[in-house]
Every structure is written in structure tokens, then in C-alpha cells.
Design a protein that fits this description.
about 260 residues, globular
């Protein structure tokens, strides 16, 4: 797969002996390109998105059910479908154009993938129809990538604090199986994103540590408004401990349904 992404002139160099200083420089450049490509696409610490996908790979099994709660252009939907060849992906977005793009991307990039994906045109605030339990729920918050709008205005379209917290409280966390988790990429660099950031961190801090492990991954040497990853892991039963701290979630005290 990697070779097809390289310019033809560099592919030819792979087949030629090094017999000039120019070719030697170009081969060195090729090696740097290959190394950079490998690092960018394999290192989980390269970005918040790389880390999120590495965590998905660590827990999702081929027959699991997973949810892309804000599918956007479908990049995360494709990754989740690759991890669940015998499972089910629920992909949802409030914009019809987004679900159409996500469906097209899955169909193009993953043979047979569309048959395992159910697309819902709806807000992430409401549980997708047909979902009972799942291993991972993915939120890539903010606004639709590539959808240009004035984010200095007060009425631009973006995910919002009240609906995202409601989603976590009413269906996303209650639907998780033991060992599953919610993965949220948060963008505090715009006004609605900042409100969402504050609300989500407050919600996460209030979760009972007996049942949940809440963690953030963010850079400390970048702008504080840079995107970051928030994960809310449902503790397996054998790792739970007694506590008095709790956040009330619909139908479950501490989300313990047993």
C-alpha cells in the first residue's frame, strides 16, 4: 500500500543502483519519506486521533458492535468497520450530507463494509435505533470537516455541551459493556467547543471511580486550545472498588446494571 503513495521517480530509484550523488540524495530523501509515513500512520502518540484509534484497536473484537456518534466524512467509520468484520457499526450524524459521504467512503475503501454499517441521520444526543450494547462509542466533536462557516458568529453549527453530555448520560455510557469505553476528541479552540470542553471535564470528574476510569491525553507544550482526547472506560467487574462518589446516569446508579 505504501509504495503506491510514493512518486514514480522514487519508485524507479528502488530498482536502480546508486551510481551518482544525485541518486544517492534522492534515495536518502526516499528513506526519510518512508520513515515519516510509517511514523505518522503507526505511532499512537503522533496525534490525539492516532492515539484514539490505537485504543480502539486494543479493545474492539471482530464481532463487536461499535458506534460512530459523529461520523462526519466517514474516516472513523471506516476504521471502526475494519475492526469489526463480523460485527456492526452504527454511524450517525445530524447532517444528511455527512452520512452520505460516510456511506460512500465505506463503500469505496472497504469491500463489504457497507453491509455491516447502519447509518442514522440524527443528533448524537439520541441513541441510534437498534442499539443495545456496544464496545466503543466514538465522538469526534466540533463541526463537519470541510464545512466552511463563520465560527466567530454565535449561530454556527457545531456539537454543543448540553447535547454531548446528555448523550453520555442517557445512552452512550449505559450501553457500554464491561471493558468498553467512550472516546471523545474535543476541540476547545472555538466558542462552542470551549463550553463543551468545560462541561465534559466536569462530567468526567464526577463519574464514580468504582465504575469508570476517566482520562485525558493532551499536549502540554502546545496552545491550551489544541484538540485533545478524553476517554471514559467502563471498569471490568473484577477491578471495581467501593466509593461514595457518583454521577447519576439514566436507569443506572454508577451505570452498574447488574
Amino acid at each position: 500500500t505504501l509504495l503506491w503513495l510514493l512518486p514514480v521517480e522514487y519508485l524507479l530509484l528502488l530498482l536502480l543502483p546508486v551510481d551518482s550523488s544525485i541518486q544517492k540524495k534522492r534515495k536518502m530523501k526516499l528513506r526519510r519519506m518512508v520513515a515519516a509515513f510509517a511514523y505518522d500512520n503507526q505511532s499512537p502518540l503522533q496525534s490525539h486521533l492516532c492515539l484514539a484509534r490505537a485504543l480502539w484497536r486494543g479493545v474492539v473484537l471482530p464481532n463487536d458492535t461499535v458506534v460512530d456518534a459523529t461520523c462526519g466524512n466517514g474516516f472513523d467509520t471506516v476504521e471502526l468497520a475494519k475492526l469489526t468484520p463480523r460485527g456492526r457499526v452504527h454511524a450517525m450524524d445530524v447532517k444528511r450530507e455527512a452520512t452520505a459521504k460516510a456511506r460512500a467512503r465505506v463503500s469505496k475503501e472497504l469491500s463489504g463494509g457497507e453491509g455491516r454499517c447502519t447509518f442514522h441521520v440524527q443528533s448524537h444526543e439520541t441513541k441510534p435505533p437498534g442499539l443495545e450494547r456496544c464496545k466503543v462509542v466514538v465522538f469526534n466533536l466540533g463541526y463537519l470537516p470541510g464545512h466552511h462557516q463563520n465560527r466567530n458568529a454565535t449561530d454556527y453549527h457545531s456539537t454543543e455541551a448540553h447535547s454531548t453530555v446528555a448523550a453520555l448520560r442517557t445512552w452512550a455510557l449505559p450501553c457500554l459493556v464491561d471493558g468498553g469505553f467512550a472516546s471523545l476528541v474535543v476541540y476547545p479552540g472555538h466558542p462552542k467547543g470551549l463550553k463543551e470542553d468545560v462541561a465534559l471535564r466536569a462530567f468526567a470528574r464526577a463519574l464514580s471511580p468504582s465504575f469508570w476510569r476517566a482520562a485525558t491525553h493532551r499536549t502540554v507544550n502546545h496552545d491550551p486550545s489544541a484538540p485533545y482526547l478524553l476517554t471514559l472506560h467502563r471498569q471490568p467487574k473484577n477491578r471495581r472498588r467501593t466509593t461514595t462518589t457518583t454521577t447519576k446516569v439514566d436507569d443506572d446508579d454508577d451505570l452498574d446494571d447488574d
